[in-house]
Amino acid sequence: MSATIAAAPPVLRLRHLSKQFGGTRALDGVGLDVEGGTVHGLLGHNGSGKSTLIRILAGYHAPESGGEMERDGVAVRLPLRPGQFRELGMAFVHQDPGLLPALSVTENLRIGALARGALGRVSWKREADAVAALLAEFGIDCDPNARVEWLRPWQRPLLAIVRAVDEVRRLTVAGTARSGLLVLDEPTAGLGDTSVERLFAVIERVKATGFGVLFVSHDLDEVLAITDEVTVLRDGRVAGTGRTSALAKDALVEMIIGHRIERRVSDAANASTKASMVSVRGLRGPGVRDIDFDISRGEILGMTGLIGSGFAEVGALVSGALRAHTGTLQIAETARALPGLTARSAIDAGIAYVPADRLRAGCVGELTVAENIGLPVLDRLVRHGVLAPGRVADHTGALCRRFDVRPPDPSLPLEALSGGNQQKALLAKWLQLSPSLLVLEEPTQGVDVGAREQIFAAIRAWATHGAAVLCLSGDHEQLALMCQRVLILRHGRIVAALNGADITEERMAHECFGAH
Amino acid sequence: MNASGRTDATLPGSGMSLRRLFDRYALLLVWIATIALFGALEPTTFLRAANFTSMFSSQAVLVVLTYALLVSLTAGEYDLSAAPVLTLSAMVLAILNTQLGVPIGIAILVALLASGLTGVVNGILVVWVGIDSIIVTLGTGTLVSGIVLWISNSEMVSGISQILVNWVIVPRLWGLSFGFVYALILTIALWYVLDYTPLGLKLLFVGRGRRVARLSGLNVGRLRFGALVTCSLLAGFSGVLYAGTSGAADPSSGDSFMLPAFAAAFLGSTAVRPGRFNAWGSFTAVYFLVTGITGLSLMGIQIFIQDLFYGAALIIGVTLSLLVRRREQRERDVAEVTEA
Known about the structure:
Strand content of chain A: 15-25%
Largest sheet of chain A: 6 strands, mixed
Strand order of the largest sheet of chain B: 1-4
Largest interface: A-B, 53 and 40 residues
Helix content of chain A: 25-40%
Order of helices and strands of chain B: HHHHHHHEHEEHHHHEHHH
Structural class of chain B: mainly alpha
Oligomer: heterodimer
Mean pLDDT of chain A: 85
Shape of chain A: globular
Low-confidence stretches of chain A: 1-6, 260-273
Number of strands of chain A: 20
Low-confidence stretches of chain B: 1-15, 334-340
């Protein structure tokens, strides 16, 4: 790979990049080469270090000393200043294409580089012609005068790519015969299959102009389809690298997830045969189709998939936080139509929903622990028309002790607690309602190891108490530890169900990526 | 967001709680200092009992209007139509009572109905149509001002029934008027509702985290709607007090109350329960501001001082409440591990 016989040095060469965050080593001696005129895939799970690497390139993070970077064979001093990537002929396209919907294609593409005529007047005719030529070069069929909000959603990332390439070219006209570097950060998220093909066609043309492209993704199929070379990151280290054509899909999956971790809990078998307590039929809504599942009394059902696969939406859809298009939900004897479900009626039906976005959907951080926990039961705490602070403190203080929320002082603002203790407080908030169905989204996200065990224990205890638990998570290790059954979603549909001993991180990853 | 970890926050020491106590009553101390300052500068005019009773009695209108804003601000909505509604209420009452000969009781009722109706229109536009409350109330407020000019022919209407005047402004208790007593009763009522009922806490959650409130089963739409209507009704009540205080209504009476009311609401949110809009904090803020202005005008400083004082107070109030919050956050962040 690092063959020195080639005439041109790599467009980007990184060596020994490391980054430490507190106790976590997010990157550990990572190196990679992106050659001009090729697409280099950077593959890995969430938390593998991909984002940290990109942020170092963008100048957001400073790497530890010892890291080296070369652009077109020229050494560049690290850390980069924010924005310095522009001078270096690099451009980034993120998931959010960053276009202004109310402006035209021309305005969006030329906003940073309007050529001014006499008296500072902008010749929109000339700008539109320039944009039309640019779009034609990359094979994009769209009217330069159309407003971006009128375009199809899949056209927007294409425009963002063209804009980035154009920007790099304009800044490097000055003579230095550098080839540009384009970093695409999960550009396909939320695109359908045919749209991804169109995006790939544009990337092929970018590649043909001599650009090096760093294609960051967690989607194995896409990486196999578009890249020439690939580097896999796992736990901040390079788990493998090589020519894409020489790598088998299974080998890549192995690199992504590493070796199988033994399942530590095996209380799976005993709960699986019981009659179902919760059943969902024909659920269809934003991002998901034809979802059917049952959860029996005492069962913890896991659900997972890649980002954008729809698994993350199921929790909001069955708890009235997101409106379903069709579907029914039956708890015990009572069936309800899902489209009419509101958060209020879901709570009345015995559903508790603990969302992943703790500080925006779960609780109000600046208000106290007592207020946050007490919110759903305020009316019960009233005596003689007065919501006595003492009563609220007693009630929530007892819950804090039961769930070991530390420090056990309910008068503290909730945001003063650690992530794990915030999550314990939120479990307390919802479990005090004795829900029949507990829906959890990423229950241990941002939670330290100690609290993680306590949270697992509280969830298991509640299931054993006779409830049904639905746990949505992208953390496969966690699902393997907690669940008796795991459903896997791909492209909005349930594509696999794993039981008992089959619930391993490896199997889940295989099913998520669709590889066998 | 993944793999972040906050370490357990250490319990604040006793020095912290002392400062918290200071935070709570700093505004009260500033008020007392202001009184002392003007007392020293103008001992003969400022320190007279009559000066204080007149300060307390004359500001009932502002206190009530501030509380109107307090209700909507707690629910997270700005109501810029509150001051125009004050004018509308006073003007409707005045016209009905003086020009159409309607008994004062019914005139008050109609004035409050008209105010409540404005709140209903605000509520429909903000909650159901989903327009930002600043824009909606800027529009309805201007519309209401237009209606006031129209029905009054842009003229002052005086001669309101002496009964109302007697029930608002005439000194009753130790030289204090009923207007002040109403304001005091309202302070206690609002204090009770905001701090000691589920409704108050629900409003607070709606204002701070609408999504959290909705997912916790609150009827967010109804609470926001209710807050906007209550705000307009209270503004209407402040208009009734205004009519009683001056015995007349003029088409621009509300204008001079708008900024002081916002200033008092925000300044009040830095005191008593720092970080929250609260009744006693606003009560203190209103009287602190009035004390300052009375003192300055007794010293013979010109009328523009009012605008300077209120404008500065609003900015300082908002800045202080932000700084208090940031400092608390920074203290917590000290022990926090950087997020990955």
